[in-house]
Each structure stands twice: as C-alpha cells, then as structure tokens.
Amino acid sequence: MIENNVYVSGSQADNFPATSDSLRVDVTLLDTLMNLAGELVLSRNQLLQGIGSPDMKTIEFSGQRIDMITSELQDAIMKTRMQPVSRLFDKLSPVVSDLGQHYGKTVELITDGKEVELDKTIIETIFVPLKRLVETCIESGIEIPDKRKQSGKKANGRLVLRALHDTSQVNIELSDDGCGKQFQTTPEDVTAGIERLGGTIDIKSKKGAGTDIQIKLPLSQSIIPSQITSVEGEQFAIPQTNLSELIRIPAAEVKDKIEKVGNADVVRLRGELLPLLNLPDILGIEKTYTDASGIVHPDRRDNLADRRSKKHSADGRPLSMKPDAAKELTPRDPADRRNHHSKAVNIAVVFAGDYKYGLVIDQLHDSEEIVVKPLGRHLKKYKAYSGATIMGDGNVALILDILHLAQMAGLSTMAESNQWVKKEQETIDSTSEKESLIIFKNLDTEYFSAPFHSIERIERITSSDIEQVGNRKVIQYRGGTLPLFELSQILNVAPLPEKEQREVIVFNVNGNEFGLMVTPPIDALEISLALDETTLKQKGVTGSMVINNHTTLMLDVAEMAGQFLNEEV
Amino acid sequence: MNTRQREATISDLEFSTFYLGEALFGISLLDIQEINKQSDITRVPQASDDIKGILNLRGRIVTMIDLGKKLGLDSLQKTKENRNIIVDSGGEYIGLMVDAISNVVTAKKTDLEPAPANISGVRGTCFVGVLKTETDLIGILNIDEILKENEAQNSAAA
After folding, report:
1. Which 8-state DSSP code applies to residue A54?
2. For a FRET experiment, which of A175, A312, B72, B132 has its CA 20 to 30 Å from that of A198?
3. Tell me, what DSSP letter sits at residue A312?
C-alpha cells in the first residue's frame, strides 16, 4: 500500500525524540511469555529432581525441554521489542516539509511498508543517519522547481521511503528524482551509524535522474552472527557483517605473500594489496611466541614478513645466484625458526565503511550467534570494542569494532590506497613500457617469469597421471598428449621434489604445446620491464629483474621450447 | 524489608569493611549487591591500569576495577583473600576488587565524622566520612563519587 503524505509543517528534531523507557506490548504476546515462564519453572523442577536421582533419562528429558523453552522464550522476548517503522517514517515527514520550505523546493514524501517491524533500538538508532540522508537529498539532490521544469521534470520533487522484509533482514530504501549528484561519497558518520547496527548501505546515483539508497538492517540488534577468534589467548568476536573471508597462508608461503610496504605489512590477495593489522600492535597486547620447549616468551618482532634469508642483503638484492644456490635452501637451525613465517598466518579479511583490511589472528574458532551486551560506562571510551558477549563456557569475549580499529591504526581508505597504488604504477609507467608477466617458482627461492601472452593456461595435475614414455614425461590432456618438462632439464636449478599434485603452466610456441612443471604460487603481474640482460644471461633465459624483492629470471620461451622440443625429436 | 534494612533506616548505618593494603575502608551495605571471589576476568586491552577487565555476573557484563589502584594506593596483591565487591552505581553493576574483606560494622549516623583532606593518601572527597572504632579508623567511601570522577576523566579523554 502506498500512502501519500504531504505535510505542511512540523518540528525538526535532532535526535529520535522518544527513546522512551516504556513499551506497548500485545497482550497475546504477554500471555505467551507467561506460559513459557510457567513451562520453564516446571522443567527446572524436573531437572532438580533428576539431579537428585540416579536416572539419567529425567535429566536428559528436562534438558531438552529447557532447550526448547529457552529458544521460544528468546523469540517471544525479541518480539516484544519489535516496532513498526511507521514510528521512524512519521518522524521524518516534518523534516522533509520543513527542509523543502527552507530551500524553496516542494518535496512530496511517499512512504511504503510502514507496518514492517524492527527492533526498538534499531529504529531509534537509525533515525539520525536516515535523517542525514534525507536532508542531503533535499538540500542538494532535488533541484529547485524552475530547474526541474527546464530538465523536463515535474516541478514537485519526489522522495520515496520504503521498508520491506528480506529474509532475515529489513531493507529501507530511500530514493529521490533529483540531480543524482549529492553523494560523491557516503558520509562517514552515516556509514558508521549503520554499521554499528550490523547493517550496510549502498548508494546508486544516475546523473540527472536521481539517487537510490538501500540500507539493509538486521531485524534485531541484540543477536548477531559472529566469527569467534583468538589473539594471544584472548577471545574476540568479529561480526559476520564485517567479514569478507578467512584466509590461511601456509608457513611456506608467508614470505612470498606478505610483504612490507613502508612500515606496514600487506598481503597480496588476488592482485589486490590488502593492509594487515595486528591486534597486539593496535591494542597494546604483549606479543608472545612459544619456543621448542613450550615456554612462552615475549616477541619483539614487529612485522610478519621479516626476512631472515641469507640470500638477501640489506637492500633486498640477492648476494648470489650461483648453481650452488640450492644448498642455501637447507632448513635453518630449528631454534632459529621462531619468526612468524615459521608458522601459518590466519587472516580475517574484514571491511567497514571505506576500509578493507586483513586482521591477523592466532586462531579461528566457531561462527556463533552471539548476544551483544553493552560495556560499562568506564569502558565506553575504548572505541575498539562495540560490546562484549558471553561465550558458551561462561567466559566473556570482546566484540571488535572493525571501523574504529581501522581508524585507530591510521589505515587509509580503499579509495586512498587505490590512488596510491595507481600513482606508484604511473611512476613506473613513465619510465618504461609495461608488460604482463606470469611469476612462478621452481624451488622455494628460485623465481621465474615468462611473458603472459606465451601461456595457454595453468593446470593442476595429479602426479600419478604422469606417464613415462622413453625418457620423456607426458600426460593425457584434452584428447592429446602433452609433453611435460621442468626447468632443471635445461637450467642449472634443482629438480622438483616428489609431490602428489603438480602445477603445470601450459605454453604454446608456434602451435606446439608443452607443459612446464613449477612450484606455486603462480601470479600474474603487470610491470615495466627493466631487464638486466648480462649478469644472469644464459641459454633459455633472457635476463633477470628484481620483482617484489626477489631476483626473478625471465624465461626466453622460444629458446626454452627449442631446447625441450628439439631434444625430443 | 529485612531486619537489617529496617534497623538501618531507623538509626544505624551498616558498612562492609575491607582492606586495601594495610588500610581499612568501608562501603555502605546498601550500595552492595554482592561480594564474590570470581576470578575469571577477561582483560580489556588498552583500558587504563585501574580497570582489570570484565566479568560475567550471571549474564551481566560487569566492569572490574582495582579499587586500590583507582584510589591511588598500591594495586591489588593477588592472594586467596581477594574479593570482588559488586556495587550498584547509577543503575550499573561495577565490581571493586579489594585485597580482603573484614567485618560488617554498625554505627549511628552521628558516629560518622567528616573526612580530613586526606586519609591514608586518599583524597578527602572520596569519603563520606570517617568512623572510629575501638581498634580502627575506617574511611567510609563515597562510591558514586569515586566512580563518577572516572566519568569526568572519560569525557576529558574522549
């Protein structure tokens, strides 16, 4: 049902006026609560009896009953807090007409879905951000009547406010038919307010045709799905609404995937550089590590990607790349392996507002529906936490405020960091031309690259599928036979160790396909080539270049193909 | 209304007394919700030194404060005698951690003497008064004042 409300005047409130302490509740709902309370008492009595008797069945039975009653009770109590959004919409109507008058614009407010219900707290908290959006739409979205007529619109501006149910959440939509230019970015305080409620906001503008804003809110604020994690023995909850994905970087890949840019750790995730935050650093928790004998020590290392490899001198250039380089790959003294990359790194990729970053955590636990409890007044000023929750074992876990953590760490927003990356690329661009490369490894520290255009695809094969024909390795592939090689056949590098699965880069040189077995990660990269064509030049290698702090040999694919395939003839 | 409260409203005041280090202090029984020795406190990284963390008190999150530290005395010495005094301050339960609990002392309102500017190194404004017993001098704490003072600091820091 669509109602037309054209209000003449009203008062403007800055806050939701009735953050009242009383609430109207349907009597039938109260009766349900009474019933459930009665049931709960009965089941408790049963349980107490059961505890006194040797019969386990009674305890089991009453346990199940209490479980059921608790869920129903929780549902019913939540319902008492639900209120129609008409409370919210009615408060916004006068704002619309007042502001319209103030700016000399006639604005018609159309509301829909007033009967949709939301938790009392959410209705009261969402008022301020929503009002701010409405104000911006009227102030700089909707044009003055004359201008509207010029662009062929009706003189009266239209503002539509709509609420609708969407599975476990409520959507609030706000749209206008104005110029569509009022939101270059989403106001920070609006985003923060909505995210604090566990909601999200999405603004779409069409130039000249208006703006559509969609706000998604949870039905109730008190219970939110969260990922439980722990850092230095303390448990922390990360709201699912802030969580994008969980990634685990195996110990062997930490050195490659986690890099240092300036003073910060970053992780390369699908070509995107993601800043990493360490809770101990931001919150001042003492970092520890456990040595071989199980004793916990303070850890003074300040970054994850601390490189201890002897192969790199201070400026990150390799000291040697001689044939015996492989010898240096022998494991270091285990006692020396206390640095972070001796263990896998767990990262929760989180986002809030314009921030996206990786939060380094020690352990991942379950994903749980948690009941949010506010912190006491002495702790309100610590913005890193949005509240606390009581875990199944009775212990308390703090709930992390992802937005404020980013601000505390002084992270730049995505827009800012993209700019930074662009700038960095531009400076490279200006010096020489850019080329698409694929980067991979032979053994752990032997980096190679090849021009992207010479590659057909990348496959993962099972080693047991490899057939030996004469002194050649082949695999059945797409109805044909693909010869397989590895770099040790033509270059002075170590042969690949036995592995169950193999990554194979399929090259195509003048119609001849062959597969090169390599060690992942295999990354694609755009870079300006600045090859050193003398130092490490050899047959099959065009030259070398330092990419991401690693000396990388550039393969001459044609020469390599000749070596591999001629040999075959 | 129980006996204790009735008596208190007529003429007597009752105080729960406790030790912070060697010094004896008291809090009005009417301010106290309960006294326990729960020790499963979750620390809150970043919080100031006097805040020991948060505690689950039957579903309520209670901020735990090291009362000695809060008053500018020595911080809590971990012993088996340690107790948490849960007080109701402005509708919120707050836990005050003390070194050890002593007796409940009854006194007439007239027994309470105004606090000097400084008792055992604690500012006079933190007290409602001083109670002299045959053996001890007990500083009776003004809980709301002590916990409110913190709020003022909060807003200054925010």
Report:
1. S
2. A175
3. B
Measured in angstroms, the CA of B10 and the nearest CA of chain A are apart by 34
Three-state DSSP at A330 gives coil
Residue A408 CB contacts under 8 Å (≥ 6 apart), including other chains: A282, A383, A384
State how far residue B92 is from chain A, nearest Cα, in angstroms.
7
B126: Cα separation from own chain's centroid: 10
- Asked if residue A313 has pLDDT above 70, the reply is no
Q: What is the pLDDT of residues B107-140, one digit of tens each?
A: 888 888 888 887 777 888 889 999 988 888 899 9
Express each pLDDT in A459-475 by its tens digit. Answer: 888 888 888 888 888 98
Q: Which residues pair with A541 in a beta bridge?
A: A538, A555
Mutation site, A396, A399, A401, interface B, largest B CB count within 10 A: A396
A290 - beta bridge partners? A296
Count CB-CB contacts under 10 A for residue A196: 19
Which residue in B42, B150, B157 is closest to A395 by CB distance?
B42
How far apart CA A28 and CA A39 sit, in angstroms, is 17
Q: How far apart are CA A198 and CA A240, in angstroms?
A: 9
Contacts of B63 in chain A (CB under 8 A): 375-379
Contacts of A122 (CB under 8 A, 6+ apart): A197, A217, A218, A220, A221
Candidates B11, B27, B9; CA nearest to B88 is B27
pLDDT in tens, A402-445: 988 988 888 776 655 555 555 444 444 444 456 778 888 888 78
- Which residues on chain A are in Cβ contact (under 8 Å) with B92? 376-377
B81 Cβ contact partners less than 8 Å away, ≥ 6 residues apart: B99, B100, B101
Nearest to A368 by CA among A394, A349, A391: A391
Contact between residue A321 and residue A447 where contact means Cβ atoms under 8 Å apart: no
A376 to B61: CB separation less than 8 angstroms, yes or no? yes
Of A235, A381, A396, the CB nearest to B54: A396
